[in-house]
Amino acid sequence: MIKAAVIDNGIVGLRESYLDQPHVQYDFLPTHQATAPDFSPYDLLVVPNGTDQVAMYHWREAVQRFLNQGKTLFCFDGWFTHWLPGSQWVADNSKKTIDIRYTLKADRYGLFEGVDLNHFIFSNGISGWWACGYIQPAPRAEVVVADTWGRCIMLLDEQTTPGTIFATASGPLGDYAYGTTDDAGSMEGLTRLYHNLLTKLIKTPVS
Amino acid sequence: MIGLLFNGVWSQYAFAKAGKYQHLYRLLYIHDLTEASLQGLKAIAVPFQSNQAAIRERKGLIYNFLKQGGKVFVAGDSTADWLDAQWEDRPVNNYWWVKDPTNPPVSQTDYSHPVYEGLSVRHACWHTHGVYTRIPEHARIVQTNGRGEVISWETNHYGGTLFVTTLDPIVEHGIQQITHLDHYVDKLTEWLCGVKPEGQFEMQAADYGVAWEND
Known about the structure:
The structure holds two protein chains of two kinds.
Chain A: E1 2-8, E2 24-30, E3 44-47, H1 53-58, H2 60-68, E4 72-75, E5 88-90, E6 102-104, H3 118-121, E7 122-123, E8 126-127, E9 134-136, E10 142-147, E11 152-157, E12 164-168, H4 184-201
Parallel strand pairs in A: 1-2, 1-3, 3-4, 4-12
Antiparallel strand pairs in A: 5-9, 6-10, 7-8, 10-11, 11-12
Chain B: E1 2-6, H1 10-17, E2 25-29, E3 43-46, H2 52-57, H3 59-67, E4 71-75, E5 86-88, H4 96-99, E6 108-109, H5 121-124, E7 131-134, E8 140-144, E9 150-155, E10 161-165, H6 169-175, H7 181-193
Parallel strand pairs in B: 1-2, 1-3, 3-4, 4-10
Antiparallel strand pairs in B: 5-7, 6-8, 8-9, 9-10
Helix pairs in contact in B: 1-6, 6-7
């Protein structure tokens, strides 16, 4: 059983996106508290799409301690504040969404088993729906998916800290993606990829 | 100057940092909001993806601002804990313009409202996040969908003007995936503060990877 913490800033649709299942159980940690939550009981910290990035900046040292314990961080949001170790997300509107395509660059863990990358490119026939901006990866991080211009859209970083970081350029992953897509293929793709992350990346599940 | 209630969401931040809007909007982090935060503002904007529970705890500040004659704009979802209305979720159709372009999610708009005056049908609606199934008796309906459900409404009952919509102009403009939103947002901004934004929506890489200034 994976014990996971989800950062919760009260936005609509968040709690429906992470549902308890036999292999994973979630606690939702509200962002109104001044002091950082205790992440130590958890195997996984999920920073979902639409997160309070001000709170994450305030809690950056707690995140670093969590990763120093060899645990796993998923960030599916645009982190405009500087808290995620090594890598940085940047917003950008210089490219047209109609031109956005993604390429799988590396997948040592088989994260894309059963996942069609085209479902992340097109939703209801429209491209560029999933991610925003790009990631400046840490020097030793692995670019998993790149966009049309070779910019990092998904990264896996097992080098910068003793833990594991998987991040997207604000592309939502989970059991649901409120308001983002209702395309059956896109929904299946992002859910399957998310559960592949859970089963293939978490190294220290607590039984 | 317009106060933008801020839930730490990147699209809210990106909007407030954009070159054409940064001198007109001030981010007000919701957990730090006080009476002093609102001093000197002409309007408050409550964007989609706000923290409804945190707003409920501070609703007195908002209604006091209205009482003093200010304008308050509420976008996206809300709760009846702080707004005398009932919002309900509905599936988001953000592809109608490809699949069924003659059938947008809003079917009726009062184009005499200052925000909508001069806007085309396409610019007055892109997609909606739910509907209002109940609005105050003193409210005026501004937009409805094809089922007659309320999308946008307004009231002067509280002193100033409260304008509420399930459109999401600020968050969506911050995301920058819809290219025509300058039309709506510029009209909204001018209505809220009296100044028409000029220039382009520019994103600067230097605004990303920042320390939070109030830290």
